Amino acid sequence: MIFVSQIADHVAIYDVTDLLPKHRTKRYRNRRTTKEAYVHHSGKLGRPGLAGLRNSTRYVVRYRDWPGCPYHYWLPFEKLTDEAGNLVILQAQPELRRTYHAGTGPNSRAIAICLQGNTTARPASAFQLECLGALLHWLALPSVLGHCQAPADGHAKATCPGSHAMAFLAGLQASA
Fold first, then answer.
1. Element (H, E) at 113
2. Fewest CB within 10 angstroms: 88, 117, 121, 169, which?
3. Is the model more confident about 118 or about 89?
4. What's the CATH architecture for 2-175?
């Protein structure tokens, strides 16, 4: 893990891009700008921390034939800290990488933030919500939506990231 930035008093981002599975030949393209973020959930709790992100990425590479991880940021369900005691957010893709996560239009302008687990069935952890709030404040993007709000390719029917996460996002927007 490579330290990227301290984004709040006790929250840090670590780049794990080079530690994740990638397709043998396919690659994501880059884009010029990022205008918004979509919040997702992984759908399964899986293994904790980096192991869970690796498994999720391995799945989309192997079974969906995608170039790599669709998420730019991964917020593990269980509390993950560095040696200094900072809460850790894992960066899985550079922000200007155009990944597959919310449909053709959103993919060209948005980053993907993933809450590990099925936040439709159970709320995101307090750790995840604290990290999500810090990350969104640090990114300072004009628009933050849930995956279920994506306008294209039938994604609006999805329940991702679930009612608990959507309520948290609504609270952040109301206090902004």
1. strand 110-115
2. 121
3. 89
4. 3-Layer(aba) Sandwich (3.40)
